[in-house]
């Protein structure tokens, strides 16, 4: 019987045999994703979906070292390239980190977080990991719902490839996860 790995098996590098070749540079480029998209379209914009206290999924809680049931600040956005959604992004910040190291989190609204994360020399990025999400994962459904609301005609694939990493500022962690939507394939690599 074929045992499928859990959908949230995060990998240090995309398996080339199973990853669409167009996605590999998107999954592995450690620089700002907003900047990478901006270099490949006329205009990048951010559609803020939600920002507030919510629950982390188990693998997020584990990586952030959260206590069972601990709620965190969650920001979810769609990144749009020339008004077409190309990324569903989900950023998590433990509540204890909000006022201290990460007071940037509030008030960002429709401005891309990347502008702040990559401008502050006190912020460092840990290595990226990638994943192929499917309908077993709540994040797949959140991305799918966001895309359906913004672009009802776009078919959502059965799997979404994504990446994530921790950003640290004064030893306090913030987690950014980014899941690539079908229109990313229409941008140059
Ligand atoms: C981390 C970055 O910021 C981007 C913008 C985000 C936002 O505004 O919420 C979230 C994730 C990223 O895709 C980046 O540009 O690399």
From TrEMBL:
InterPro entries: Chorismate--pyruvate_lyase, Chorismate_lyase_/UTRA_dom_sf. Pathway: Cofactor biosynthesis; ubiquinone biosynthesis. One of its GO terms (biological process) is ubiquinone biosynthetic process. Signal peptide: none annotated. Removes the pyruvyl group from chorismate, with concomitant aromatization of the ring, to provide 4-hydroxybenzoate (4HB) for the ubiquinone pathway. Belongs to the UbiC family. This is Probable chorismate pyruvate-lyase. It comes from Thauera propionica.
